[in-house]
Write a structure and sequence with these properties.
Structural class: mainly alpha
Helix content: over 70%
Distance between the termini: 48 Å
Strand content: under 5%
Largest sheet: none
Number of helices: 24
Length: 493
Amino acid sequence: MSVSSTAVSAVSLPAAQPVERAAPERSINLTHLGVIVAGAAAIRLLVPVPAGLDDKSWSLLIVFLGALAGLVIQPAPMGVVFLSAITVAVITGTLTPAQALAGYSNNILWLIVIAFMFARAFVKTGLGRRIALLIIRRIGTSSLRLGYSLSLTDLVLAPVTASNTARAGAIVFPIAVSVSREFDSTPGPSASRIGAFLLFTAYQANLVTSALFLTAMASNPLAAEFARQIANVDISWSGWLAASSVPGLVSFLVVPYAIYKLLPPEIQHTPQAKRYADSELERLGPASRQEQLLAVVFVTLAAVWGAQQLLGVDTTIAGLAGLCALLLAGVLKWDDVVGETRAWDTLVWWGAMMSLAAALNQSLVTKWFATLAGDSLAGWTALPALIALVVAYTYIHYAFAGQTAHVVALYPPFLTVAVALGAPPLLAALLLCFFSNLNSTLTHYSDGAAPIFYGSGYIEQRAWWRVGFYLSVLHLVIWLGVGLAWWKFLGIW
């Protein structure tokens, strides 16, 4: 029901809307919560401490697995789950209060909050919509070019919008639906005229742009922080972009064309798209002062982030400076910042989760797991083992209904095993980072944006899964082919 409502709302109001707020809070499912707590307690009381772990490490692992079960089952909001987890850890003596709250001092956490605020500014001012319409007017003369127009819109906005759901769902999705209707393509029999192609292309392009930039998806900084803790590698904004640029550009160029062949639109030429863009731009009028200010701050911030290593400016501090500029210029109001509930919700649960993860990675658990997994892959050389881990990491996503849960559950152990088997730490960390986004090609429930696009009614589930699987193979070929060659050139391995 919620998915359909979201889709209908976006279709009927194609103009810029406020950045989506958190869904109305559901009641806590005490039954499911009780099962998780009882299961964790039973394991702690009845199962002996495994060889290779001490008592505190075993307790910490159980608390973490209980929190992870809460993340997947969702008996309560994630903030409630992780705050409860760190509270239990302190009460039981598993963590100190300082350890339980350490995650909130993480710079990356605040970078995510800042990116949410920029996403709100793009939607509030209408600059995101204007960019999309300008691109469509310029190159949207055929269905394929129109697909690239939507993809390019997402690419332009990606560096400063950590919510890929807000970027795709609040900005690109309404444009894609509106353009589809210009060609009398609506959900149902006429979806194949052009709508199915445009919406699926817009969604899939969003995954590629999410993999391109450290700040394009909320779980990217999370994975980068895990990489620092586990593999002792620092992935900067510019370092991420340098590594992703070549394979990412290939994927960005190839994916719309692949969808054009696998899910071909009946309409090939789209002169109406330019007329639609012209009429909408005329309605918008000249760019407002707020749009102009946001554009200046956006370009400046992207340039500073790109030259981070040269300038020596901390990424988070640069982001804070950009946010302050928007507030002082009146582009955003303080009420906008306070009202961006998804940002503060992310801060609460992400900080608590990072506290647990940091303590876990400093315990005996990491070494214990690496020993077990390493024994199962004994005899494999480093690179084939890493490739096998990446493929497994990708297709396990069929079992996940979100990218963040996937990263929290699997990124640390998979990276631990890869490094233990001798894979170059930075190469392993980056590959798993990139496929933490690209694995969402597979299903219509794979991340926050997928239900919005699927709920529109334009794309049948069978088509989504079929084409999504083909695209997952395409990404593996590109990133494990072109990507490995590029990273060899860069000296990453």
